[in-house]
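Consider the tokenized backbone below.
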């Protein structure tokens, strides 16, 4: 049985490992309650996970939100940090389809809980997850002809001999690693620029190449801004990285060639 990871320094898992799930019998706490009766209390625990990610057969990252429903009658609770580590262990695993991932999540969480767990996986486009200035037609994430490059570098970026004015694009697939803890940091990326058209496939491959790169949020944003600026030579450029909350704080990095950045960039995203 694994040790409780809470309060311990843990490295990011390198491969899928259901053994990371740390269970705590519900009866330990219930034994301290006066006159507790399992028959008197009905209910469930609903968990929402915003960092569910894996690789499809072409090596392209996929990301979803998920809900896990644990019955109050189940034998065990699962320590939350262990669930995060378990989900992180899936990040570089290849699954043929979302159904395969669903079956693994349902199986592993049900075994750990001691009772069947309800699992609902949702794409980020299923509900109103984005501010108005995000439009699904501007997403990079539907690109299928994709190669996962492990190390970021400006040489990945390509331009097309076509002028664009004020083009906006975004991706939900950005992930980097904390340089101190090694744990994943997730973000939504947005770009707005004018000049030679940036090849969308190369831009997505460039963003995903940060998947195992260890750097602070602000450092990632400034590196991305400067590498796009120097490699693609846009007339003007604004980039944003909306990082998910960690420790109750979400960090949003905005860098631009303009002195005034649009107020839209101050919106909060659903995963934050």
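A designed sequence for it:
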């Amino acid at each position: 049985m694994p040790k409780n990871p809470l309060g311990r320094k843990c490295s990011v898992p390198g491969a899928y490992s259901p053994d990371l799930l740390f269970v705590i019998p519900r009866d330990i706490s219930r034994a301290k309650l006066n006159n507790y009766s399992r028959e008197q209390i009905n209910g469930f625990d609903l968990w929402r996970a915003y960092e569910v990610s894996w690789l499809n057969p072409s090596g392209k990252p996929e990301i979803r939100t998920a809900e896990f429903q644990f019955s109050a009658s189940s034998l065990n609770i699962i320590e939350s940090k262990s669930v995060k580590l378990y989900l992180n262990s899936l990040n570089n695993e290849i699954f043929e389809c979302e159904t395969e991932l669903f079956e693994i999540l349902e199986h592993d969480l049900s075994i750990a809980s001691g009772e069947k767990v309800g699992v609902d996986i949702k794409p980020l486009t299923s509900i109103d997850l984005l501010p108005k200035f995000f439009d699904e037609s501007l997403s990079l994430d539907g690109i299928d002809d994709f190669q996962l490059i492990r190390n970021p570098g400006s040489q990945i970026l390509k331009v097309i001999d076509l002028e664009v004015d004020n083009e906006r694009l975004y991706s939900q697939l950005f992930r980097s690693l904390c340089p101190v803890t090694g744990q994943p940091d997730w973000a939504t990326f947005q770009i707005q620029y004018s000049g030679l058209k940036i090849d969308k496939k190369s831009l997505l491959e460039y963003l995903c190449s940060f998947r195992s790169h260890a750097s602070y949020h602000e450092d990632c944003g400034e590196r991305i801004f400067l590498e796009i600026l120097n490699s693609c030579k846009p007339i003007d450029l604004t980039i944003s990285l909306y990082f998910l909350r960690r420790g109750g704080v979400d960090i949003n990095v905005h860098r631009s060639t303009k002195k005034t950045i649009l107020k839209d960039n101050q919106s909060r995203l659903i995963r934050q």
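The mean pLDDT is 89.
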